[in-house]
Amino acid sequence: MKLNLKTIVAFISSAILGLIIVQVIWINSAIEVRKSQFDEEVRGSLVEVTLQIPKVVRANQEDIFYQRKKQLDPTVKDINKLISAMLGSTPFQKVSEKITEKQLDSLIKNEMLKRGINTDYVFGVYDATTGASLYKQDSMTAAFNKQLITKGINIQFFVDEFMLKQPFISIFFPKKNGYIFRKMFLILSISLLLILTVIYAFYYTVNTIYKQKQLSEIKNDFINNMTHELKTPISTIQLACEALTDSDMNSPESQGTFIEMIKDENSRLKGLVDTVLKTAILDKGQVKLNEEPINLLDVLNRVKDNFSLKISQLGGEIKIENDLPELIFEGDKQHMTNVFQNLIDNAIKYSTEIPKITISTLKTIDKYIVNVTDNGIGISKENLDKIFEKLYRVPTGDLHNVKGFGLGLNYVKSIVELHGGNITVKSTKDKGSSFIITLPLNK
Which H, E and C letters describe 312-352, residue by residue? Predict the structure, then answer.
């Protein structure tokens, strides 16, 4: 079964889309695994913290006991009063009095750093029964109180034997996702780069295939056009030669007519071959400009004279609008003549009405602007950007009334650019076109 290009592209697109979806799912799974690992590392840190809390509590109580011992009244002899004065209410203190928030924060931070966790966090200590906070909350902790209770990582811890219900610590990381993404930056970047590379490679491949397909179609069209163009003069020359060998056509007048016909068709063949050869030379970059000071006005008048007979036969006109005495320019006279001849020839060929062509000139501080305007069939927007491409011709179906290979405008653009200028076009379908050539005064 033969598959067309669109079907193949659709199959490949589906396969690549599938690979991208799998890659995205894998990335998402990797992020979830990394989040789970992070949570486990945090829990491990909190376990270590809970093991150290009783030690800190005892150290704090011993310090309080020692301070009170120094403050005892030496005159008191009653042992019960002495013990009561030394212990006070120490065993029955609140959690916040047995271990300060700062001490707890220091324990958490140290354990986290040991495990390579270095990101902002908030924590709270809550009653296991009521869920009430056992520390006075600052503004940041209060702002994340809901997340601490619902989304925080928590663990119950032992303070001392005097507490009937042991509290629990809850810790929440506001920038958890950003931290995990930073940790996975390398692998995520590589994955994203691979996805983008696959997409670009696919786009580049498909684009290249379509361009090659278009080029193949253009080349086939060129071959068909060239065959059509060459067959006519060859057939004419063949008929003229057969007529010359015919004994009934031996009169000097008839022979002269056929010989003239052969000369004309031979010149036409030479022109076709020269057009193709000039394009080949341009492609190889072997064009050598014979630059000299030329008057563009002379070039334009010469082109006008060359087409005057043909345009008058069609009832049309060519006029030059110029207010300058001369347009001196450093360039190749022959090539510049060819440039304007191509534009005028196209203006005549692509006109369905009486051709009216206007060549206007303008001089600025540093450049000449020559505008060639016609009232032809115009060019559609979708074809406007392609008309300067080699071998490109505006599609006309199977019609062959307009002759050519699609080389003229490509030649025009190449020659203008070799002279340091540029050419643009403005066109409206069915209303005409305007080709604007800009040339530098001094290169």
Answer: HHCCCEEEEECCCCCCEEEEEHHHHHHHHHHHHHHHHHCCC
